[in-house]
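question for whoever is on the cluster today: can someone run the full assembly for these? two chains, 486 residues total. i dont have access anymore since they changed the login thing
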Amino acid sequence: MANSANTNTVPKLYRSVIEDVINDVRDIFLDDGVDEQVLMELKTLWENKLMQSRAVDGFHSEEQQLLLQVQQQHQPQQQQHHHHHHHQQAQPQQTVPQQTQTQQVLIPASQQAAPQVIVPDSKLIQHMNASNMSAAATAATLALPAGVTPVQQILTNSGQLLQVVRAANGAQYIFQPQQSVVLQQQVIPQMQPGGVQAPVIQQVLAPLPGGISPQTGVIIQPQQILFTGNKTQVIPTTVAAPTPAQAQIAATGQQPPQAQAAQPQAPLVLQVDGAGDTSSEEDEDEEEDYDDDEEEDKEKDGAEDGQVEEEPLNSEDDVSDEEGQELFDTENVVVCQYDKIHRSKNKWKFHLKDGIMNLNGRDYIFSKAIGDAEW
Amino acid sequence: MERSLQLSRFLLNRKIEIVLPLMNKKSQQITPQLALQVLLQFDKAINSALAQRVRNRVNFRGSLNTYRFCDNVWTFVLNDVEFREVTELIKVDKVKIVACDGKNTGSSTTE
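^ ran it for u. tokens below:
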């Protein structure tokens, strides 16, 4: 594939960097008396951040790679299941392989009587545009039988009710219910054509009455979750990104389902008054008798007239580019070292090395870069 | 190499985002000093990885909008740039290039 060279080297490099760093700091962690689990959490967070930022193609985690292999085997079976279980599928066929890309990191539970829950991450739409992730997820979606067992518990092998689920695209669920919290999660990959990137974060929790305390740290990455509609105790909650400030979910029991983050839409208000708008004030007095609509129109006209006169005067002042051009955050950056920078009249030549680039949101790496530019 | 350690600070925005939340959690799992150690380790790891494990070349061409050379650091802003690797072509409207001195004589203020 055209992008194969870069997409192969960068994820590998990052992964190896992560491994190296984690291994190197493990000693430091232990010296400080910090638990190994924190180290693992750091690694998980790191990988998820990388995936979430979509700066790199490919997966970040050995676990996910294993899951990939496992899920690839389940994929053909799951395709059919997905057709049945999930209602809102825009493209059942094309995207089925990708639909089931939700990945799960299932930490085998050891102490559990209730059936285990594999929580699939709903596949991000972005995923469809991303690399070839053919992993099917969703043993979890299969494991979420509609109406079979409303009570599902998640246990990790460390005894905590913790489940880390990572989607290939950074969707992550970490559930840390305190005690016998029953999490009923219905994550259904929602297929939408065309790379919709709206981070609709939704989580369905059906806590037992009195079972959950609001402080359970449920961290959810942006996901799209559909409801099967079969569960009567489906309680959606919206959760934000896994920053500490937002790590808590108000897991109340009786909230009406909020399928989408309802956004109150403020009426669009045209601002017609401005600095050079002296004429509109006079118009206002005259127009008080008019209807509101006409008033707005006239004010607008008055405003525009006033500004048109002044614009030719102001526009000449701005010859250079905005200063903000250099300060803009999301612009493409190259961070590197220079070997030689050369200029002849207005022809510049750049000899750079050991650099990392972020272009159009993706990360690239080079050991040498040579460039030309005219000033 | 020391200079490149400074350089990698730019990349730490990702790492910092991760390490800080762990610090800020109620349980204070990671002390600030520990976080700093981790970041320093990341510095070393990323720089050695860049130096050792990456072996590819990129060409680019564009028009230079601004240039700046201060404290032995070049900062360029280029417009309408095409980055060309063997396998792919990347076009951007604007790119900022920050380059530290790649020679070993560059002094470092981190230590």
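summary bc i know u wont read the tokens: The beta strands of chain A are 163-166, 172-176, 203-204, 217-220, 236-237, 332-344, 347-359, 362-374. DSSP finds nine helices and eight strands in chain A.
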